[in-house]
Amino acid sequence: MRFTSAFTGLALSAVTQALCPYAEQALRDPELMKRHLKSDNLNKETPKEKRQSGPGNIPFTTFNENQLIDVTGKYAWVAPGPGDIRGPCPGLNALANHGYFPHNGIVPLAVGASATEKVYGLAPNFGIPLTVYATLVDGNVLGDTWSIGGRQPLDLTSPVIGAGDGLSGSHNKYESDASPGRGDYHLYNGDVSSLRVAKFQALYDLQADAEVPNYDLDVLIQHRQYTFDQSISTNPYFYFAPFAGIAVSNAAHTFIPALMSNHSAEYPNGILDKETLKSFFAITEADDGTLSWQPGHERIPDNWYRRPLGVVNEYSPESFAQDFLQIAAVVPEAASVGGNTGTVNSFTGVDLGNITGGAYDTTALLNPTTFVCYFYQLTLAVVPDFLRSEALGSLLGTALTLLQSEISPYVDPSCAKIGNYNDSFTAEFPGAAVGKP
Ligand code: HEM
Ligand SMILES: *[C@@H]1O[C@H](CO)[C@@H](O)[C@H](O)[C@H]1NC(C)=O
Ligand SMILES: *[C@@H]1O[C@H](CO)[C@@H](O)[C@H](O)[C@H]1NC(C)=O
Ligand SMILES: CC(=O)N[C@H]1CO[C@H](CO)[C@@H](O)[C@@H]1O
Asked: What InterPro entries does the record tag this protein with (predicted)?
């Protein structure tokens, strides 16, 4: 089925008006938000009276000096050395360079979620599943570690099959084509970790004439259109997977305004200017405007303030569902599983209902509550598939227990379960062969 027909008759503009569940509740019950902010024991950020709505779907925003991220002392920036691993994720590379992650780029499961919350305001109900997924799909299940880039060196805790391929080796499982800045697997001989400066330049130039440059969600949605079209028109093997594509690739776009913006009393919702964007992406600009990339040099700028903490303000799957809706309204293809069929410009979308045994169809993703269900249920469905393929043997039980125990607490019991994950559709897409279970 072509993606265009999956979207026929949809009133997208109506759905994009919906607010995230927290915002809806909080609007009805202002006490609720106050309680959330009070109960936040990580830090005490005084709520501002004014309600803000703005780019990146930060429904309510407070500003407090303690949003400043320490980049001094033990958190001072240190370039990666020869033995240090860096990979396709600028947010994680920066954490390793600043000592919020181990400098070698090998991250214990628990550190992944706590550091991404502390430094960026990524909600634990987002960060924990992302970290667990990394551990299971491309990490060391026995040692509970995962690599932000290539393979981690083997040690005594490594399972017989190895310690996982790392994020850089997770194409179609975690890492995806049509990234904001990285190149497609088949276009660069499998190098999915290097930033392609021309792609970054396309994003950078979107604010060339702006009076107050700000890489907000609207700008990133324009870039989403560009990156998707770029893959369709240049990569015969372009493939957009149920999890790596719909969830991860779209999140890689929304994370830029949501998690890299600088917050202040003046801009409590955040503003992402050119200097901050370049710093996080390890880009330097010469006097003549030429951009260049320093591999592994991603850096949190001095005087950078993250989004506020607290349930309402942290970036959760619920917040992502809101941003996803706005993407889908402009770039509906990016809400669909599919790919090119061996030639450029042959993008074909697949009926999601067919893949999920009827549990979720493409239109269901446009309901934020259902989208959140899809996010969690899909991890529960695809991880076992990836695991079996890697013949974990006696570790399989350990892995499945970890998956269930870490993800299940976040899943609303009323979510439809994906009882029958059916990946036969991938036969149509030659690019789906990489990383296939
Ligand atoms: C545990 C948490 C995280 C994990 C496991 C993770 C993993 C990944 C992976 C696998 C990719 C490659 C996606 C693709 O190929 O399109 C990626 C890309 C990306 N991530 Fe993360 N990430 C995490 C947190 C973050 C955070 C906190 C930020 C922002 C501060 C961030 C920003 C990005 C961006 C901007 C990209 C796209 C890079 C590019 O294409 O040049 N991520 N991440
Ligand atoms: C963030 O905003 C504050 C307040 O405007 C400013 O002092 C600081 O320099 C900004 N940080 C960055 C990295 O732009
Ligand atoms: C799996 O999907 C294929 C089409 O991609 C379909 O022909 C097949 O009947 C499905 N199998 C099950 C068990 O649903
Ligand atoms: C559950 C579901 O959506 N099944 C569909 C799979 O695809 C075939 C053919 O395209 C349909 O007939 C099924 O209804």
From this structure: Chloroperoxidase, Chloroperoxidase-like_sf
